[in-house]
Amino acid sequence: MTGTSKRPSEGRIDEGETVHRRTRALAAALAVATIVPLAACSTGEGSGPPVLTWYINPDNGGQAAIAASCSEASGGAYRIETSLLPRDAAAQREQLARRLAAKDASIDLMSLDPPFIPELSEAGFLAPVPEDVATATTQDVVQGAIDGSTWKGELVAIPFWANTQLLWYRKSVAQAAGLDLTQPVTWDQIVTAAQDQDKYLAVQGAKAESLTVWINALVESGGGQILENPEAPADELTLGLETDAGRNAARIIGEIGSSGVGGPGLPSEDEAASLTLFQGDKGSFMVNWPFVWSSTLGGVDAGSLDQALLDDIGWTLYPQAVEGQETRPPYGGISIGVGAFSEHTDLSYEAAQCIVSAENQASYMVSDGNPAASTAAYDDPAVQEAYPMYDVIRQSLEQAAPRPQTPFYNEVSTGLQQTWYPPASVTEDGTPVTSTEFITAVLRGERLL
């Protein structure tokens, strides 16, 4: 039971799952759904129902189990086979883009990282979503998931599971600092509280996608956008970093980096390292995905962590970048795309609707720890038992902001990682200017990443 994009499960297998749960899910999946090599094709020829190949990101077996369940539920209309993509999200993008560029008919269904959806849609690699399917699959779905599956005002992929970061805190530290976490808090407040208590604030400062996630959440929470016209061609894109929101984001990151409150390992700190820091004696506050809970619970069950630590953990919405202004937490997750060159697009969309049913999303959240995009899934008693903070996750997803939706996301994200790193070097006035100049030059072909 873990959460994620970029948390560890967005491109990497989640932590905290028990062996018996994984084994049970895989055994059920293998009874109907076969994991096939990437070179396989779903021609549907021969005896039996048409075979739909679903290219999935690595997980704990939950997607294969859903494939088995939906195959059975189809009553012989289709059979879903799953094919495993690389562990890293960028490698997943490259694998799919190359195959789709070759008009690979074997790609019926795809588990897609939202930042790469505009690129695939713009290239004509995604089959249009039928209007009735779009209506059915966006009912009772959190807004962040809908936004992340949309390009140029149209739904181009089907929301499956969603993810968001919460503010996790040690109750004892917050109490000692006199910080009331029943009310919205700001980044400045948690930085001050951690410093006053001589503790570390856990954030993701590594030169990786997680840094882009942090920057975007800060800019969006400040009322801005990294890209002001994300649908524009590369040489016409306008960055929104040289704004009050961009400068405030740089101020926050720079202060955490230069003050030492982020801990000595901040420049190499990813989601897993952040959790380790937070669980230690100097832990105080942390922004991270919901996998935090199940990972810590698993550590307690295994005897490597104390029950007192688990009892001391609280959670609330992501910090405000500007006091009194609604926070826009990170959004991550997976959407289901249908390949434009599939021989079974109608059946693929029928299968997609089964895959993303509220029941399957709830089951997947419990088995694999990936939060549901469906609001109804959070009413499932099993979800509420596994995730006591289910209501905060759901609220956070409603407010969450996707990363820049552009076909040139790779250039923008990599450019941010190169210019906002290390955190200690980030300055309020200098970094937004330097970053804007560099990314703009890359987009115009004047500089290389």
From TrEMBL:
Keywords per UniProt: Signal, Transport
Classification via InterPro entries: SBP
GO molecular function: maltose binding
Transmembrane residue ranges: none
Keyword Mitochondrion recorded: no
Cited Gene3D superfamilies: Periplasmic binding protein-like II
Listed Pfam families: SBP_bac_1
Biological process terms in GO annotation: maltodextrin transmembrane transport; maltose transport
UniProt KW Transport keyword: yes
Recorded GO CC terms: ATP-binding cassette (ABC) transporter complex, substrate-binding subunit-containing
Entry-linked SUPFAM superfamilies: Periplasmic binding protein-like II (SSF53850)
Family: Belongs to the bacterial solute-binding protein 1 family.
Stated name of the protein: Extracellular solute-binding protein
